[in-house]
Amino acid sequence: MLTAVLDRGSGQWPVVSTHLDHRFDDSALRQLQCAHVLAIIDGLRGAADTEPPVVIGGDFNAVPDSDEVRMLTGRRAAPVAGLVLSDCWEHVGEGPGFTWRADNPYQSVTAWPDRRLDYVFVSWPRPKPLGTAVSARLAGVEPVDGVYASDHAAVVVDLISS
Length: 162
Hints:
alpha+beta
């Protein structure tokens, strides 16, 4: 994990980037990693009624209905009481949001189907509307000068910041 605190002019905004284990069959390890992610986020967040939420982005290598993503989004028991993450794509994205895509030439020899593995989350609770997602889109789904930037598409989210 990489953590940073961004100066947003009227205060600071904590952000986290992570990359979880990639093995298709390693949900148990990703769940342990998600528990650690939540513990770090808990230490970064300020007062839920006045401070900005924590923004978390990264390659979670897990589909939305996986145990690990369900843990993060409050759909199953989470290890940190009073902390869940809002999945920005779920709130404002259009379509399936596949970030692992068969049309990407880096995937030409893989057996995985198209799937959503990459996320932007915002911690909850938080002062409304701060951190509310207003749009979400994919980037990097087309090559630039014949080159794809990554084996995954990127998730780009616009958030209410004041």
